[in-house]
Structure formats: C-alpha cells, structure tokens
Design goal:
Length: about 325
C-alpha cells in the first residue's frame, strides 16, 4: 500500500460524487443557434457543413419551433443574398423588406420571447465579399462603412431584433451603432460585440454557405492576427467604453486562451463562437465514424465554457441541447 494522504480519485469514485464536484456546467441556456436563411423555399443542404442547411422562411419557422422544443431559446440569423441584390455599398443590408427583417418579423410575431440575434456586417450583401466598403484602390473604408452599419442595425432593430452583433471589425462601430440605436429610441436593444474576431481559416464553410468569400484579397486589415492575444485587450477596452453589453471571441476552440484572457479582464458577459470550420471538423470526423459525435461535441462545448465563455454560438446548439437532456 502506498502511504498517500491525498487521493484525488476519491472525488471521482461514482457518478453522484462527480456530478456534485463538477466545476463547469453546460446547458441549452448557454447556446445561441446560428441559422442560415435564403429567399427561396425549403432546405438547401450545405456541402461543407453536413447536417446544416440554408432555410427558406417556412423551414426556418419549423427549425426554430423544434429548437425551442429542445430547449434552445436564442438564434442568430445569416442571410444568403441573391447575387443580383449585392452591391459595392451593400444597400440591401438595410432594406426593410430584405430577407433578415422579414425573418425577424415572422419569428417575433410567432414567439415574442424568442431571443433574435442579428449579424451586422456587409459581407453577405457586398459584391466584393468584404465586411466593409472597398475603395477603388482596394482599401476597406472604415468610417464610410460604419455609417452603413448603423443603418443596417437600425433596420434590424425596427424589425424587432433583440441583440445586434456587429461582426465587421471596423473601428468605432460599437459606439456609432449604440448612438444610432439610442437616438431612435432603441435603448433596450443589446449589443454583442465581436470584440476579438480573428482573420481565421475556420470561416471557410460559412463563406461556402453564403457564397460570401472575399472576391479579392483577405480580411487581415480588419480582422485580428491569430498570433495576437494582448491586442484583444485593446479591443475589449474600446468595446466596453463604446457601450457593448457582451463581448465575443471568435473562433472559440483555437482561441481558448483568448477567451480566458477576456474573461479575466472584463465584468461583461463573454460569448464565444464555435465557427463553421470547427463544426465541419467535428461533423466530418463523426460522419466517418472517427469520433463519437455526441461525446466529442459536448466536450468541445464544455471546454469553451471552462475557458470562461458564458454564451456559446454553435451550429450544434439544437443537437447538443437534445444530448444534454438524454444525459439526465
Ligand atoms: C460575417 C461573419 C463571418 C462569420 C460570422 N459573421 C464570416 C467572416 O467574417 O468572414 C463566420 C462564422 C462561421 O464561420 O461560422 N462578417
């Protein structure tokens, strides 16, 4: 017999002990469910995101009804915009009859308590596939873009959005959007800032889903360098001072250290986005029988929570909610 005073295994000896000692909780109340929508009818499967589809508005209503039944109460909408509606200045982004405002109105009419989150950025509407307006020399114009983003946010708020999530990474957009919303009386609409959004290769499948990849160049002049963590703190300070209600780190899995850093440097709630590429890796391995999908997905989400995220945006939201129920 070893002469051991400490035996950490004692606290792992049965399920009840483990349940009692667990440090991190994961539940459907932590999830926001990203959904792709299109102007046509039905579900269009997305090749690089097996299990996800672009949804027509009727299909969207069915999906949200199902998700609510599984315990998910928040969704975020991403539109696939017809090529003919795209332009260099993204006017369609603030068309009150556009796809996103129509979807918001239908959702909120059916379920007033559903939390509807909307994305603010020009890329789905941009003929250049960039989040901002591109100058003739190919530069992304910051201040001109912010003016359009404010209009986009107002259009979404007027349609009934609860949380507006600017993902564009232009400087000063949180303050400008807050001022625009407040000026129009939308003082209760929350802002979830994509605070530390990295120029990541893991957005590939999302850009397939929306056909929104940059037509030239990359997003490195506005999205952050994946090598940088300290720089995230500068963005945290700015988004806080400009009136953000929540801060986000994106992607999640490859940036768990940044989630932890942001968690420790703000009193605001922290969100993390398990992005399309993280989804694709897990879904593909599961499809091949190389991973146990349920266990691996729940572990990936638990890791994001353990790193310090209060809220997780994940394409697995609905399935994870169901799996968590089965575990009980
Ligand atoms: C648009 C936006 C992107 C994502 C969310 N909002 C793509 C991008 O910045 O290129 C990516 C989400 C994902 O990959 O799941 N600004």
């Amino acid at each position: 017999m070893l002469d051991l005073i400490e035996r950490p295994r004692r606290n792992r000896r049965n399920r009840w002990t483990r349940d009692m000692m667990r440090e991190t909780r994961l539940g459907p109340e932590h999830f926001i469910y990203p959904l792709f929508i299109h102007a046509g009818k039905g579900r269009q499967p997305i090749g690089s995101m097996p299990g996800c589809a672009r949804l027509g508005l009727d299909a969207l209503m069915r999906e949200v009804e199902g998700a609510r039944g599984d315990g998910v109460g928040a969704v975020v909408l991403f539109p696939a915009v017809e090529e003919a509606l795209k332009s260099s200045t993204g006017e369609e982004s603030h068309n009150p009859q556009g796809l996103v405002p129509r979807a918001i109105r239908r959702l909120k009419a059916e379920w007033p308590d559903l939390v509807v989150v909307t994305d603010v950025a020009l890329d789905p509407y941009s003929s250049d596939g960039h989040d901002g307006i591109v100058s003739p020399e190919g530069r992304i114009l910051n201040d001109e873009t912010v003016a359009v983003l404010v209009q986009q946010a107002l259009c979404q708020a007027e349609a009934g959005a609860d949380i507006i999530a600017p993902s564009d990474m232009m400087d000063g957009r949180i303050g400008a959007i807050r001022a625009g919303l407040d000026g129009a009386g939308f003082t209760e609409v929350q802002l979830m800032a994509y605070t530390a959004k990295y120029a990541s290769a893991f957005y590939g499948p999302f850009r397939d889903a929306l056909d929104s990849a940059p037509r030239f160049g990359d997003k490195k002049t506005y999205q952050m360098d994946p090598a940088n963590a300290r720089e995230a703190l500068r963005e945290v300070a700015l988004d806080e001072s400009e009136g953000a209600d929540m801060l986000m780190v994106k992607p999640a899995g490859p940036f768990l250290d940044v989630i932890r850093l942001v968690r420790e440097s703000t009193a605001l709630p922290v969100a993390a986005y398990q992005v399309s590429g993280e989804y694709a890796m897990l879904a593909a391995a599961a499809q091949n029988g190389w991973l146990d999908e349920k266990k691996a997905v729940l572990e990936s989400l638990l890791g994001i929570r353990r790193a310090g995220a209060d809220v997780i945006l994940t394409y697995f939201a609905r399935r994870a909610a169901r799996w968590l129920k089965e575990n009980h």
